């Protein structure tokens, strides 16, 4: 059901500044994308089969802006790839897991994603990403 860690999401104030640091450290840049549904601009950097996703808020009402204001820059979430996100959400609901998204939403790259509330995962925001079909 869970295939791999897809990416680590890191909240940053500036994609330009943070991206430069990651490129300077030798991470392979994969591109930028605006995910308006989530209120973020993202940059991806390849790390083997996984990625680092830098998240910059699109506005002050963005969840990432709120995260930065409360906690500052740093790891925002862990994303795992699942075969079937609908099945995963049903299984988690039945297990009593608290979900932020009861149904999948559109994420970066047009993938279907959903978030599990940190209170169910010992303080870690968990993103589920459906494997590309």
Main pleated-sheet profile: 8 strands, mixed
**Strand-and-helix sequence, N→C?**
EHEEEHEHEEE
Strand content: 35-45%
Strand order of the largest sheet: 2-3-4-1-5-8-7-6
CATH class: Alpha Beta
**Can you give the mean pLDDT?**
96
Q: How much helicity do the residues have? A: 10-25%
Would you identify the regions where 5 or more consecutive residues have pLDDT less than 50?
none
Structural class of the helix and strand makeup?
alpha+beta
The separation of the N and C termini measures 14 Å
Total DSSP E strands: 8
Radius of gyration: 14 Å
Question: How would you name the CATH homologous superfamily?
Answer: 2,3-Dihydroxybiphenyl 1,2-Dioxygenase, domain 1
What's the architecture, going by CATH?
Roll
Can you walk me through this structure?
This protein is α+β, with helices and mostly antiparallel strands. The chain has a single domain, classed as 2,3-Dihydroxybiphenyl 1,2-Dioxygenase, domain 1, CATH 3.10.180.10. The chain is built from three helices and eight strands; from the N terminus they run E-H-E-E-E-H-E-H-E-E-E. An eight-stranded mixed beta sheet has the order 2-3-4-1-5-8-7-6.
Write the layout of secondary structure elements.
Layout (H helix, E strand, L loop, with lengths): L1 E10 L3 H10 L3 E8 L4 E8 L2 E8 L5 H9 L2 E9 L2 H10 L10 E2 L5 E5 L9 E5 L3
Parallel strand pairs: 1-4, 5-8
Antiparallel strand pairs: 1-5, 2-3, 3-4, 6-7, 7-8
């Amino acid at each position: 059901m869970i295939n791999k860690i897809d990416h680590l999401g890191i909240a940053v104030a500036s994609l330009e500044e943070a991206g430069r640091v990651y490129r300077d450290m030798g991470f392979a840049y994969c591109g930028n994308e605006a995910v308006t549904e989530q209120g973020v601009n993202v940059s991806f950097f390849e790390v083997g089969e996984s990625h680092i996703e830098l998240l910059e808020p699109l506005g002050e009402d963005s969840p990432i802006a709120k995260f930065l204001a409360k906690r500052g820059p740093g790891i925002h979430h862990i994303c795992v790839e699942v075969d079937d996100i609908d099945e995963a959400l049903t299984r988690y609901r039945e297990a009593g897991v608290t979900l932020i998204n009861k149904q999948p939403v559109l994420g970066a790259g047009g993938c279907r994603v959903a978030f599990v509330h940190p209170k169910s995962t010992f303080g870690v925001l968990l993103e589920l990403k459906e494997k590309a079909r």
